[in-house]
Amino acid sequence: MDEEKIEAEVEEVKVKEPMNPLVILAVILVTVAILTYFIPAGEFDRTPVEGQDYEAIDVDSFHYVDKNPTTPIALLKSFTLGLQGASDIIFFLLIIGGAFQVVTATGALDAGLSNLVYKMKGKEKIFIPICIIVFSLISAVAACCEEYLAFLPLMYVICVAMGFDSLTAVALLFGSSAVGYAGGMMNAFTVGVAQGIAGINNPPFNGMGFRFVVWGVLAIVTILYVYMHAHTIKEHPEKNTMLAIDKKYAEAIETEKPEPMTGRQKIVLTLFALSFVAVGVCVLLPQMKWFSERFPDYEFYMDEMSALFLVLAILAGAVGGLGVSKIADEFAKGCGNLLWAGLIIGLCKAITLVMQDAGIMDTLIYSMGIILQGLPKAVSGIGMFVLQDLLNVLIPSGSGQAAVTMPFMAPLSDVLGIPRQCAVLAFQMGDAFTNVITPTSGELMAALAICHIPYKKWFQYWGPMWGIWCVIACIFMVIAVSIGYH
């Protein structure tokens, strides 16, 4: 099928509007609220951990408490409370959208992307392994996930211009993030917290060699999966199920020989690139011992990144020749573009809050843990992974899941005769994989919203990859238990 025919068919296709992700999450929220009337409430005793953001639970303290089912008023309030609870991520996302729109308004981004796509003609597919290796390593070391939402609008445009699709764009960032989290060689927010709670953090991040192998295998398999998909739709555009949607929403880039960039455009793009380099460096600095010892109070997270992108918006607008009012107008427009992604994140948080307030979160955790105690040792490691995978649907936060489950899983591994390092391995892989498939993941749903991908299409595309990951994880858990990984 020639390109002209495909283009004509795309114009004729009426894009079927998918179900809004807000509707999907609202249904989940109402369902969870109804379940609070049937699932018994219970809780573990908790004690604050000095210098940490989480509380430790006493695994022997679980007890049932009076039911506190979610009332209709509490259900309606949960959305507002969810928006407040996820405000750091939401406002970070809005500021990124504003900064990105200001840069776009200068014309520098279109000019730069046109030149990039033109120069990479015939070599586009090498872009895939490079992205997966780089972004997964960053996640394995610096625990980056929601930060990749900043890169997604750019990745979306690049992938579509190169002949790939929006599914590839999300996979290159959030699939890579999952691979990095699953390896987690030096991930302080997941492996670091989990090892600390399990009491095996001396030295920090011990067992790194085995986790590096896990990362390597997952990275190779993910590269092959994404590469085959990208190759297929590039060579056979008629097989691209996202073609009509991408043509409707993705900004077109000139693929013929573009006009030379102006001096202003080059400076704007330099500022744009330096802002991402600065984010990467500032996130990695605390991982370096010499820096953390000299600056123990140093922090660089959502607020600091938001400030950096705000500076980018001001400088890019000024250098690009936009007036003060124009910069403000474009910034507000960019914030508006990502507003509904912020609403999605707030709804995901609301689901977690409803479970916590009704007291069913601890009951579900306790019940799942009891099931593991009845498994043979040969499959208990796999059971731990499956349990963590299920729990991640309820608790998408990595450090939060570690705080809730590791105090239970670590002693449970002792009872089962399994090294505690295996419990940490089960946690890190279980935490990583589900976040790119479950609709309760705010980052995933925001990413799909940005790229206008229906959740059903994403599940059809990434579901097989998730299944392959799970098989690999089970194999690694069997190996870890067999060799006494510690």
Give short descriptive properties of this protein.
single chain, 486 residues, mainly alpha, two-stranded antiparallel sheet
Write the layout of secondary structure elements.
Blueprint: H1 3-12, H2 21-35, E1 42-43, E2 46-48, E3 55-57, E4 63-64, H3 72-85, H4 87-105, H5 108-119, H6 127-142, H7 152-161, H8 166-183, H9 188-198, H10 208-235, H11 243-249, H12 263-284, H13 289-294, H14 302-319, H15 324-337, H16 339-358, H17 360-372, H18 377-394, H19 398-416, H20 420-434, H21 442-450, H22 455-483
Antiparallel strand pairs: 1-4, 2-3
Widest sheet: strand order? Answer: 1-4
Number of strands: 4
How many individual helices? 22
Q: Topology as H/E string?
A: HHEEEEHHHHHHHHHHHHHHHHHHHH
Q: How would you sum up this structure, described in words?
A:
The chain has one domain (3-483). Helix content is 71%, strand content 2%. The protein has helices at 3-12, 21-35, 72-85, 87-105, 108-119, 127-142, 152-161, 166-183, 188-198, 208-235, 243-249, 263-284, 289-294, 302-319, 324-337, 339-358, 360-372, 377-394, 398-416, 420-434, 442-450, 455-483; strands spanning 42-43, 46-48, 55-57, 63-64. A hairpin with a 6-residue loop joins strand 2 (46-48) and strand 3. It is globular.
